[in-house]
Fold:
Amino acid sequence: MIRIILVRHGRTAWNLPEGQGQYFRGTTDLPLAAEGVAQAEATARRLAHLRVDAVYASPLQRAARTAAFLAAPHGLDVQTLPGLSSMSYGDWAGLLTTEVAERWPELYAQYRTDPFAVQVPGGDCMAGLRERAVAAVHEVLARHAAGDCLVLVSHEAVCRTLAVTLAGMPNHLYWRIRQGLCNLTAFDYDPATGAFSLVQMNDACHLESSLPRATGDGTRILLIRHGQTAWNEGAGEERFRGRTDLPLDASGRAQARALAGKLKSEPIAALYVSPLLRARQTIEPLAAELGLPIRSHEGLLDINYGDFQGRTHREAAAAYPDLYALWRSAPSGVTFPGGEGLAAVRGRLLALLGELVAAHPGQTVALVGHQVVNKVAVCTLLELGLDAFWRVCQDTCGIDLFQPSGGAWHTLQVNDTCGLP
Structure:
């Protein structure tokens, strides 16, 4: 695999705080503001422990300077790529979004619903931006080999476009994913298959200790995968866990304690968990910190693997070669012998989300599920389809953050593992 970390540049004078509207910046060559420099420095510290093999950036100074901070700890030079440059906003450049909405009401409304269908007056079209940004990514990938880690520093429009495109989301989700300043969004690229896997999205814990939220008062859902058990990858040979009621191992208990420290300042109103022991043990330290009861809910229960349950992957492949191959290639088509399939998990998960939105309006709710449950949630709310199951990463104790706003689910973070052992 080749790891790609997308980074949006730091703040400029035209990046206004959320809720104040925004200027159309595009190819206007703005410098970093003092806060943007501090953000870039914090991001550099966050990435300093990684082995980074190359840093690429948009030629615009706010991206190139952010990239210079990120490259310095690794002794690297920044390589600029025109394909990572921002969009030319033409007649919109330098205007506030409110001004554009007033002067081009129909075109701006289309831009807010299907941006890839829009040609900006005197500027670029979003479809063209996507074409050159994706081409730039593949140009970079052609220069590197499996095992390399690459950092690409660009702009909001480019980072959103690449996140949507590389993950395989439909166009209309462009506005439903968060891409904050100096956030980290990571993909793994498999040179053998040409496939991209979403590792994490909009991780900005190096800038802000609190988790993000969408505008509006929709129920904020913190979906957490349980901590490590003896049957998880990383603890030994992975087995199909499913309904087997495993406890956390020592690493899992350490993850649970770290999770409590990470979330204890969040305004969490309720805790819901899968009925299985490993989920309850994951949330117990946080429940003690917050003084909240733990509510068990069947909607978070792990998949019923039936005859696969308890087997290693090697054992399952030997016993059911055709079905195992289908599970690895087209998982939506699998119903496990004596068990269930992903569609059943999706049905009870969506029912739970509807229930929680009705029961906790305007509140933050933490849930603890399982790898399958959480992957299904991400695939569903990002509208990827269940066959994208293997292209979405969900690490033990990783956090996904969702919030409905304007009648649709917004994805604020995927697989946040910051600060966890």
Q: What stands out?
A: The two ends are 23 Å apart (CA to CA). The first strand starts at residue 2 and ends at 8. The mean pLDDT is 94. The longest helix spans residues 342-359.
